[in-house]
Amino acid sequence: MPSTTKNPLKLFNLVESAAVEAAVRRAQTGQSIRIGPDPALHRDKGTEHRWVEAVLRHRLSLRSLNRPIAIRATDDGVHPLIEDGQHFPAVALSVPFAEGTLDFLATYDGRSRLVFDLLIPCDRCQQPVPTEEINSLEDLGDFLLQTRDALGGSPRLRTSPAHSTGCPALGD
Ligand SMILES: [Zn+2]
């Protein structure tokens, strides 16, 4: 059977299915899911990870799926929280499913906005690097549909310290 007749999408979980649905809807109608402002930052000590997790949950509209979705948030051992920062680690988030895991990295961009990147093995060195900035369910759907030109790639892909030394994807 010619490969063109195969479904190019291998969706492995309900979040991905919902993401593709949302992306198609946005492409057809120009309308995104209205999610409103991010949850407020709790000032209590030790709750930062829970807050970052809540923001990801909110941006991806996970509550609308009406299913419990687990997210694990930990310090990322490689990336800084702030571009060129040294003291605070970024937050690594994984959303586990029976069939695989979606991995995100939370950092602050140059405008002090908390942003999420999907961590994907680098084309060149196979290390998991921030590949696409995903701040909505529609963004995730666009990524899965491979309309990546519309998204443009993560600005952190070329600078990620997670690449192997000398990886050609770094810099330039
Ligand atoms: Zn690389």
3D architecture notes:
The protein has 172 residues and is α+β, with helices and mostly antiparallel strands. It has one domain (10-151). It contains 4 helices and 5 strands, in the order H-H-E-E-E-E-E-H-H. It has helices at 14-29, 48-59, 137-144, 148-151, and strands spanning 72-80, 89-97, 100-108, 114-121, 128-133. It has a 5-stranded antiparallel sheet, with helices on one face. The chain is globular and about 40 Å long. Zinc ion is lined by residues 122, 124-125, 127, 129, 163-164, 167, 169.
SSE layout:
Layout: H1 14-29, H2 48-59, E1 72-80, E2 89-97, E3 100-108, E4 114-121, E5 128-133, H3 137-144, H4 148-151
Antiparallel strand pairs: 1-2, 2-3, 3-4, 4-5
This protein binds zinc ion.
Zinc ion binds at residues 122, 124-125, 127, 129, 163-164, 167, 169.
Keywords, separated by commas or semicolons:
single chain, 172 residues, alpha+beta, 5-stranded antiparallel beta sheet, globular, disordered N terminus
**Category by helix and strand content:** alpha+beta
* Main sheet specs: 5 strands, antiparallel
- Order of adjacent strands in the largest pleated sheet: 1-2-3-4-5
**Tally of helical segments:** 4
Q: How many strand segments? A: 5
What gyration radius follows from the Cα positions, in whole Å?
Answer: 16 Å
**Portion of residues in helices?**
10-25%
- Give the distance, in angstroms, between the N- and C-terminal Cα atoms: 41 Å
The overall pLDDT average reads 87
Oligomerization category of the chains in this entry: single chain
Bound molecules: zinc ion
